[in-house]
Design brief:
Blueprint: H1 2-17, H2 25-39, E1 44-51, E2 60-67, E3 70-76, E4 80-81, H3 93-105, E5 111-115, E6 122-127, E7 136-144
Antiparallel strand pairs: 1-2, 1-7, 2-3, 3-4, 5-6, 6-7
């Protein structure tokens, strides 16, 4: 019975989460942060991709491993560890929430963010006019540990 209840809740969340809502970006962020606080794992792996015309080494894809809320590694796919001075370019989930919040507070437009319907982490965050070189973050291969 419990397994069926979880499956039903998951399907409902996916159905609801797949729909766009008319909530403001601030409400979307607050809702996503609440889901992360309630359901987000303290340990997870993910790939963060950042697209922009940035300083070399601060764009592209990076695999991030977090254990008990602490980053244990950030690695480029072919080049090894991300240097400490570039670590902030590849944020954790809470850090990406803060980046989105800062963009909202600064009045950045347009802001287009999609959140995971279960955990609430940002799946895609375009923070400004991407065609004019504003950053675009995507999170893929998210795995709770």
């Amino acid at each position: 019975m419990r397994r069926h209840m979880f499956a039903a809740m998951t399907i409902a969340a996916l159905a609801i989460g797949g729909c766009r809502t008319t909530s403001s970006p601030n409400e979307g962020l607050a809702s996503a942060r609440a889901r992360w606080s309630a359901h987000g794992p303290a340990s997870y792996d993910m790939v963060v991709s950042k697209s922009c015309e940035c300083v070399p080494g601060t764009s592209g894809s990076v695999a991030i491993s977090v254990r008990n809320g602490v980053v244990v590694s950030r690695t480029y796919p072919n080049d090894g560890a991300v240097p400490p001075e570039y670590a902030a370019a590849f944020p954790t989930v809470p850090d990406l929430f803060d980046i989105i919040d800062a963009a909202l507070r600064a009045g950045t437009k347009p802001i287009d963010v999609e959140y995971d319907p279960i955990f609430g982490y940002p799946v895609r965050a375009a923070l400004g006019n991407v065609a004019a070189d504003a950053p675009l973050y995507t999170i893929s291969n998210f795995t709770a540990r």
